[in-house]
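We emphasize that the prediction below concerns an isolated chain of 294 residues; any contacts that depend on oligomerization or on bound cofactors are therefore not represented. The input was used exactly as deposited, without trimming of termini.
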Amino acid sequence: MRKIAIAAVVLLCFCLPALLAAQVAPSNHVIIVVEENHSYSQIVGNSNLPFLNSLASKYSLATQYYANVHPSIGNYFMLTTGQIITDDAGHVPIVTADNIVRRILTAGKTWKSYLESVPSVGYLGPDKFPYTRGHNPISYLSDVANSSVQKLHLVPFTQFPKDLTNHALPNYSFVVPNQQHNGHNCPPGTSPCSDSLILRTLDSWLKNNIGPLLNTPQFQQDGILIIVFDEGKETDTAHGGGHTATVVVGPKVKRAFRSSQFDQHQNVLRTALDALGIHRYPGKSAMAVDMNVF
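Result of the prediction step, given as a token string:
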């Protein structure tokens, strides 16, 4: 028995460093920013995206990240429910499936969805360009849509800098730029335009609106920022939704790191939950590995 006990201790001591290394760094502030409709080859190394590529070079870049499906809406739901749910953004009923908001609330954590150009706080109405509800998956969740309290966490993006200034950032932030700043459409007053201009506009928006987050004390303590593209270009159907660029930033994120781990949107969902100390996972995130390699 003594030999067995000693062997068990030796095995535990041998395995413990590996177990600790495999954990996602705990965070009180996880921020997900979702961009639109560009493949990895269009983003990484593109001179029209100096800010985003500087983050990819300084922090971590997922080189084998693939969206789940075309069109967009299934990817947004995968990021929040671990399921594709639907491929029709025009006809989405209230979603009762397990989801990240339910897990966050059960754990006593806080959340907000920051939506550029949304008409009002708690808005559940149809598209009002340049806002599109199909990029606001949390608004369809029963935990939110049926709650007068939780709807108040669907806020215009103008609230984001105020929350930064007031040290009021929630534990989980889902950030959605509007259609003229997210890589989907031309910027105001320029249609038609080149893709170069679309990408320069996306990059400037990130620099001006997300850049200030990086130097705040609350982010510098333990923040994790994940910038993800919902899907690749239409002709890119690799693994369902195309090969996309995903950048991971934070004080505890590896520097100048490129991951070759295969990841999809369910991996981001699981990673966000693990970082927040939540270990019950909606949909496919229950079977996904987290992105602890970063």
